[in-house]
């Protein structure tokens, strides 16, 4: 008892970070005991300090070998587990004989512990594991009568496969039957290991795929979230081979309730489930097409859960449920979390781009949000409306006047660039387009590159659509700023291209500015087979055949 108390104090000191390696020899001397609790404490100490004291750790080898033949299966398993955890090369060669015995032990607890030990030994010395035939012994354990031994053998082989370039663990039709049989009797984590390994199996035909799905489907009702997601993964993979539409439809119906149930778990599990659901709805949106309400955000959801729910709602939005979805998004756009509000406004725009029939309703919601006059909401709304204009040209221009009212409040580069693009694109329909663009020219040198590039293109568009004196003076000032006053090569090169095209053939420039809102020199060789250079003395572009 005194020894046990002393070793407990040593372990306590070790746990809080104190260096007790000087007691190594004294602690190792306590190994020769029949007391299981004391033996466990000594083994724990050994695992921690064997790497820093490899020469002294060899003193414990004889005790390990002796314990691996102890009549008590708990001690046999403890010995082989500890030897596997001591990552010292000098000890690994002594581990092989006890490990070989334990892999064929009569007790399943010892066999399952030895299976995991093989994976640890492979990580230390892969060549030794292969030479001593441990991989074949692991594969034999897949046919073991005990499901936990099978599960640990599968886990060990899967871990070895992940760290090996060549195929080590291949599931055959014979192995498949063994794994599916063990699946029903394993612990929950054993089931996860087996299901993850089964996901690598390629079914031979539709009938084989249906048989696998039939055996795996009961796992969808499991209480453990990891088991449910692993089962869903297998079913989705096997559904690719199933030809019967009725079977596929039934499987989609069966998968929906378990996935919905995952959203009632803790926030961390919800997040993992939502990330998986996000992928699932991209491949099979019909699975959760009628369950969009479960993804509506709750007031107490963490922000990372809300963001994932938003993404899924966008993917599940359809003509049938868009009114419900827009109502939710509009509500989210009035919340206090700025990042979440921005994401909600962008979500409305993405729905408009995705669903042509609902675009008008989406724009109505965006206009209502603009009228609230909250600065960051207005700016996000303008950014998404620009994308809607590009998706549906010449359709919703009647709202431009409302957007122009918010011109003075814009202070974010992306919002400014979007508004400038709208003015330039529809310059012929805006009476005072030149005045609106001129308000940005005063601060042209201080603006970010994004705004400068968009302002350059918009001014050129204005001049082409309204070639009057005002726009002519504006374009002269912008081109001068963009070529002489700037250090940005992208801005300068685009300005030179526009300048040269304006001086030769403005009709060609009309095509460029209408179809290439962002024209880069790097685009030219791909489309024409020519590269473009610039003669700075003559202020001329020249073209030559690309090599």
From TrEMBL:
Q: Which GO terms describe its molecular function?
A: clathrin binding
Q: Which SUPFAM superfamilies match?
A: ARM repeat
Q: Which UniProt keywords apply?
A: Membrane, Protein transport, Transport
Q: Which GO terms describe its biological process?
A: intracellular protein transport; vesicle-mediated transport
**Where does it live in the cell?**
Endomembrane system
Cite the Clathrin/coatomer adaptor adaptin-like N-terminal domain residue spans from the record. Answer: 2-505
Location (main, coarse): membrane
InterPro entries under this entry?
Answer: AP_beta, AP_complex_bsu_1_2_4, ARM-like, ARM-type_fold, Clathrin/coatomer_adapt-like_N
Query: What are its GO cellular component terms?
Result: endomembrane system; membrane coat
- Keyword field contains Signal: no
What is known about what this protein does?
A: Subunit of clathrin-associated adaptor protein complex that plays a role in protein sorting in the late-Golgi/trans-Golgi network (TGN) and/or endosomes. The AP complexes mediate both the recruitment of clathrin to membranes and the recognition of sorting signals within the cytosolic tails of transmembrane cargo molecules.
Q: How does it assemble?
A: Adaptor protein complexes are heterotetramers composed of two large adaptins (beta-type subunit and alpha-type or delta-type or epsilon-type or gamma-type subunit), a medium adaptin (mu-type subunit) and a small adaptin (sigma-type subunit).
Family, similarity comment: Belongs to the adaptor complexes large subunit family.
Q: What is the protein's given name?
A: Beta-adaptin-like protein
Identify the species of origin.
Answer: Aegilops tauschii subsp. strangulata (Goatgrass)
């Amino acid at each position: 008892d005194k020894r046990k108390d002393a070793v407990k104090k040593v372990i306590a000191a070790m746990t809080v970070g104190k260096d007790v390696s000087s007691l190594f020899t004294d602690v190792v001397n306590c190994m020769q005991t029949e007391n299981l609790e004391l033996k466990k404490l000594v083994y724990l100490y050994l695992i921690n300090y064997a790497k820093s004291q490899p020469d002294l750790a060899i003193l414990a080898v004889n005790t390990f070998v002796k314990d691996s033949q102890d009549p008590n299966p708990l001690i046999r398993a403890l010995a082989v587990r500890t030897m596997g955890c001591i990552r010292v090369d000098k000890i690994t060669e002594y581990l092989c004989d006890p490990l070989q015995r334990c892999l064929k032990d009569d007790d399943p607890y010892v066999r399952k512990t030895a299976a995991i030990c093989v994976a640890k030994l492979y990580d230390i010395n892969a060549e030794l594991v292969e030479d001593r035939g441990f991989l074949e012994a692991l594969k034999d354990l897949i046919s073991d009568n005990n499901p936990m031994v099978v599960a640990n053998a599968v886990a060990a082989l899967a871990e070895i496969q992940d760290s090996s370039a060549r195929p080590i663990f291949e599931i055959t039709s014979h192995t498949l039957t063994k794994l599916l049989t063990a699946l029903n009797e394993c612990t929950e984590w054993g089931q996860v290991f087996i299901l993850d390994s089964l996901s690598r199996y390629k079914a031979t035909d539709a009938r084989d795929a249906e048989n696998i799905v039939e055996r795996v489907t009961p796992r969808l009702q499991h209480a453990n979230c990891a088991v449910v997601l692993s089962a869903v993964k297998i079913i989705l993979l096997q559904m690719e081979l199933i030809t019967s539409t009725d079977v596929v439809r039934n499987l989609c119906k069966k998968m929906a309730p378990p996935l919905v149930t995952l959203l009632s778990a803790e926030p961390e599990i919800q997040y993992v489930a939502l990330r998986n659901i996000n992928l699932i709805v991209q491949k099979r949106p019909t699975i959760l097409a009628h369950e969009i309400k479960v993804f509506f955000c709750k007031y107490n959801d963490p922000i990372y859960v809300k963001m994932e729910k938003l993404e899924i709602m966008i993917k599940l939005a359809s003509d049938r449920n868009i009114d419900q979805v827009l109502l939710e998004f509009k509500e989210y756009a009035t919340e206090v979390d700025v990042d979440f509000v921005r994401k909600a406004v962008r979500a409305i725009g993405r729905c408009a781009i995705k669903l042509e029939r609902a675009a008008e309703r989406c724009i109505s919601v965006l206009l209502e949000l603009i009228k609230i006059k909250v600065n960051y909401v207005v700016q996000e709304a303008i950014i998404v409306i620009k994308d809607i204009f590009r998706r549906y040209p010449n359709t919703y221009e009647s709202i431009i006047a409302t957007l122009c009212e918010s011109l003075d409040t814009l202070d974010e580069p992306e919002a400014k660039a979007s508004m400038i693009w709208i003015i330039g694109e529809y310059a012929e329909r805006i009476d005072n387009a030149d005045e609106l663009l001129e308000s940005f020219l005063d601060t042209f040198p201080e603006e970010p590159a994004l705004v400068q590039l968009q302002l350059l293109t918009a001014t050129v568009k204005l001049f082409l659509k309204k070639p009057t004196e005002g726009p002519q003076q504006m374009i002269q000032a912008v081109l001068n700023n963009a070529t002489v006053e700037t250090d940005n090569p992208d801005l300068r090169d685009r300005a030179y291209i526009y300048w040269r095209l304006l001086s030769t053939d403005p009709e060609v420039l009309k095509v460029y500015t209408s179809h290439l809102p962002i024209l880069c020199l790097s685009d030219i060789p791909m489309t024409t087979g020519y590269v473009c250079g610039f003669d700075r003395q003559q202020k001329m572009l020249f073209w030559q055949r690309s090599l």
